[in-house]
Amino acid sequence: MTQRQLFELVVTLEKDLADFYQKIGQIERLKPFADIFSYMTDHSHNHARQIERAAALIDLPELNIAPIETLHRRIKESLQEKILQEDDNDRVLAQLARAEEIIGTLYQSIANHYRNHASVYADIAQQFEQLSDEEMTHRDFINGHGKE
User: Which pLDDT tens digit goes with each residue over 22-58?
Assistant: First the structure.
């Protein structure tokens, strides 16, 4: 499941919860709790909108692997051939050092990509933690309402 699919699923869940609360609010024997159901309908719709906004703002970075494939091909074909044909050992070492530098720079780029992912996922986690806290507040609201 992709992140987008997850957000869509959670939005659907919240909308279905809102519909559910709205429907049970119409049941005659549950009319005494109509204010709870109305409150929960509104909050579920608000959660759905909040999640939709969050999904629209989140830019999940993709990793372009074309440079990795190009570098791999160059090392495998071109560099290896150059090294084997080079008579000057200092040049061999310089080419190898340069190849290691390029690979190191590439790995740093990949690390930065995943660091960026971590930031995005931390933001997503924070948003779901907030939603979790709100759901627990809803639980407490519902539990407290029947005890008045």
Answer: 999 999 999 999 999 999 999 999 999 998 988 887 7
pTM > 0.70: no
Long-range contacts: 120-127, Cβ < 8 Å, 24+? 120/58, 120/59, 120/60, 120/61, 123/58, 124/3, 124/54, 124/58, 127/50, 127/51, 127/54
**Residue type at 123?**
D
Number of C-beta neighbours around residue 78 at 10 A: 11
Cα separation, 93 vs 1, in Å, equals: 47
Where would I find the H helices in the chain?
Answer: 3-24, 34-57, 66-73, 80-85, 89-145
